[in-house]
Write a structure and sequence with these properties.
single chain; alpha/beta; binds adenosine monophosphate
Length: 213
C-alpha cells in the first residue's frame, strides 16, 4: 500500500502519519523530518536546507526528489510506504509517479486533510515538538505534562524555527500556490479521499483508518 498524506502545514499530517504507520505497519517518510535531521548535522547541505525551511520556502525539487528516491529504495519501503510532506509540487508528483512506474508500482491512495487557514495559524503558533523523538504537542490543546519536557522520552520540547507568524504565512501561500494543485492531479487518478482535519485527532484517525481499509 503506497499512500500520501496531503494537506496544508498544521493539518495534522505528522500526528496522523505516526499513528497510521504503527497501525498499518508502513514506514513513515517525512521529508520535513529528514531535512530537519540533516540541518541539525550542521553540514553545508544542512545549512542550505535550514535556510529554505526558516524562510518557509520549498527546498528545490531536484534535491527533494533525489532524497526521496533514495529513501524509497530502502528495503523497508518495498512493502509500501506513507509519504508525509512529499510531494509538494507538480514536478515532485510526476517524478514520484515515474520512479514508481519504473518498479511497476503506483500511488494507491492520497488522504487529503482539510483545515481552514485561521485554524492552521492557531495550531502552528502554539505547536511545540520534541527535538529528540519528534513527538508533537500543542500549548493549548495538548501541552506536555511538564513544561518543555517530552512526556514520551524526556527530550527537550521546543518551538520549530519555522512556526512563527511570518513564516507560517509564507508556508500557507506556498501550499496554496504549489501544493494544493496536487489534489486535482491525483483526483484524475481517482485516488483522493478528503477528510475533515478540523475534528479531534482520534476522530480524524478513525476516518482515515476506515478509508484505508
Ligand atoms: P514540514 O515538516 O513537512 O512542514 O516541512 C518543513 C519544511 O521542509 C518545509 O517548509 C520546506 O522548507 C521543507 N520541505 C519539506 N518537504 C518538502 C518538499 N517535499 N519539497 C520542498 N520542501 C520541503
Amino acid at each position: 500500500m503506497n499512500l500520501i498524506l496531503l494537506g496544508p502545514p498544521g493539518a495534522g499530517k505528522g500526528t496522523q502519519a505516526k499513528k497510521i504507520a504503527v497501525k498499518f505497519d508502513l514506514p513513515h517518510i517525512s521529508t520535513g523530518d529528514m531535512f530537519r535531521e540533516t540541518a541539525q548535522s550542521g553540514s553545508e547541505l544542512g545549512k542550505q536546507l535550514q535556510g529554505y525551511m526558516s524562510a518557509g520556502k520549498l527546498v528545490p525539487d531536484d534535491v527533494v526528489i533525489a532524497v526521496v528516491r533514495q529513501r524509497l529504495s530502502s528495503d523497508d519501503a518495498k512493502k509500501g510506504f506513507l509519504l508525509d510532506g512529499f510531494p509538494r509540487t507538480l514536478a515532485q508528483a510526476q517524478a514520484l509517479d515515474k520512479a514508481l512506474a519504473g518498479d511497476g508500482k503506483k500511488i494507491d491512495g492520497v488522504i487529503s486533510l482539510t483545515v481552514d487557514a485561521d485554524e492552521v495559524v492557531r495550531r502552528l503558533s502554539s505547536r511545540r515538538v520534541c527535538v529528540a523523538c519528534g513527538a508533537s504537542y500543542n500549548l493549548i490543546s495538548n501541552p506536555a505534562k511538564k513544561e518543555d519536557v517530552c512526556d514520551a522520552c524526556g527530550g527537550k520540547v521546543i518551538q520549530r524555527a519555522d512556526d512563527n507568524a511570518a513564516t507560517i504565512r509564507n508556508r500557507l501561500e506556498v501550499y496554496r500556490e504549489q501544493t494544493s494543485p496536487l489534489i486535482e492531479y491525483y483526483s484524475s487518478a481517482g485516488v483522493v479521499r478528503e477528510i475533515d482535519g478540523m475534528q479531534p485527532v482520534e476522530e480524524v484517525f478513525k476516518k482515515i483508518c476506515a478509508v484505508i481499509k
